[in-house]
Amino acid sequence: MGNVENPVAGSAAEAVRETMDGFQLVIDALKLNGIDTIFGLPGIPITDLTRRAQAAGIRMLSFRHEQNAGYAASIAGFLTQKPGICLTVSAPGFLNGLNALAHATVNCFPMILISGSSEREIVDLQQGDYEEMDQLAIAKPVAKAAYRVLRADDIGVGIARAIRAAVSGRPGGVYLDLPAKLFAQSMDAEAGRRSLIKVVDPAPRQIPAPEAVTRALDLLKSAKKPLIILGKGAAYAQADAEIKQLVEKTGIPYLPMSMAKGLLPDTHEQCASAARSYVLPEADVVMLIGARLNWLLSHGKGKTWGGKSGKDWGGQKFIQIDISPQEADSNVRIDAPVVGDIGSCVQALLAGMSAGWSRPGNDWLGSVAERKSKNVEKMTETLAKNPSPMNFHSALNVVRDIVKANPDAVFVNEGANALDFTRSIVDIYKPRKRIDVGTWGIMGIGMGYCVAAAAVTRGQVIAIEGDSAFGFSGMEMETICRYNLPVCVVVMNNNGVYKGTDVNPTGGADVAPTVFVKGARYDKLAEAFGGVGAHATTPAELRKAMEEAIRSRRPTLINAVIDETAGTESGRITSLNPTAKKK
Length: 583
Ligand code: ADP
Ligand code: TPW
Ligand code: MG
Fold this sequence. Notes:
By secondary structure, the protein is an alpha/beta fold. The chain is built from 23 helices and 20 strands. The strands form four sheets. It has a six-stranded parallel beta sheet, with helices on both faces. Strands 16-15-17-18-20-19 form a six-stranded parallel beta sheet, with helices on both faces. Helix 3 packs across helix 18 (446-457). The termini are far apart. The site of adenosine-5'-diphosphate has 24 residues, from helix 11. Magnesium ion binds at residues 466-468, 494, 496-497.
């Protein structure tokens, strides 16, 4: 704590004056607000901040690239409802972290990117300072809020505002700019302590209006073929028991969006995932809980929803539960918006449902069940096959068993085919146990998410990675080994992006743009850092390696060799791909 300075001349009564510098104020402000972990990368001007944070008992996790630290912070925010903190150096470090800040905002995850910056007076006159950049201006368009602190006695306010902005209302990414000079400023320690703010009720409950709840219930009652869609906002809200109760009390079939899988176990009898393409066009009233009608839900219209063509409305009426009052009507008309936090909204709906609530008719439930069992049967057949070489299905059949046996493990997933097949094949059993590419379908979240999930839960993490996807953050395998985290990474190695079979049409020496080194041994990367590497060419080898990784809790990278012809272009979103359409 603070350093001791010489007595101020003339004030004999005050023998020694204890002071506090900017570094200390930042650390104390974070600790005061329950921040126990920082994801970052040291360098001028924040090296001492990383050292002193560690000395002060904050877990300081250092990464090899700021983007991965940023993704880690963003998902720590999702998992804990506390803002994940990413700490970077100025200009280039800041820009590396910026991608994750934008990602946090787009995905509604609470995160604070704290970056050191250069001298204001030089930056603003563009006189060419070390790593000169007007970072605040650049962060603003992608952040939910952005602040700069210039005076040590404002650090408390700056951090309090950043925390509130990140977690209140619709969560998002917040940028906090801390110029180098701030850290060196010192102030009287007592005044410094008094300047800090412990944020009271950072994410206040937002109770829905009673008439909005009644409107929603009336619409739901009128439905013949109702459907509930759970999104990652519902997973974030940590209202797991209430959501389960609502789903079960209504008896309505539900679809979990990718990161809402496990909110109720995917094996739940009301889960309609295996009948998705049937329930979306057939449903008449759809209740969205923490899910946006963005591209992932075909904007609520078009053929997916039973519309005649691309932009046609399918005729569904929508109830939308969301904390953002601006979300409704973003794509199609929302007949019953319910604005509030999901916990409060679901409680209000439950309270408003009379004891004699009637479940949907057997026509609807029966036909959903029928589709479901047909599709499940088909999938079971496919999964039982054991082709050589191993394909996505035979490998994922193993992963499915391993996850079933380890339902508490956090499951990380990215890639194209490696994502789409995994999402539909691997069941998730508990809330917030599946984290993936999110709203942007971004590649690169993998190893950052693994580090954060292991740090937050202190438990096992399993990652299924496309070989391309893995490459975006692969160097963090060193980070995983350095901190000895119980992470088992499986690289689904099909020699490239989507497939490994493209050829260069010119016959030239360069391989096609989607193709990587054939037969690469990703497992060696783990070995380079003292972790465990395994090479799996059959489902049996994959099973053995995964079981051993989980038993030993050692950092493990399994190179799962997948038939390079097995994937499809862009996985399941081929339709968004202009060249694929031409073909
Ligand atoms: P998905 O991709 O799973 O469909 P989205 O990210 O599109 O989910 O939607 C999440 C929605 O959840 C956002 O519109 C966000 O405003 C909302 N949300 C996040 N947290 C809460 C909360 N605590 N209460 C209510 N709504 C929330
Ligand atoms: C930041 C575009 C979408 S999916 C993908 C890329 C490059 C990789 C697919 O190959 P992978 O999976 O991972 O080997 P598989 O099983 O199909 O072979 N840059 C960013 N984000 C995205 N989404 C892309 C590029 C993309
Ligand atoms: Mg691949």
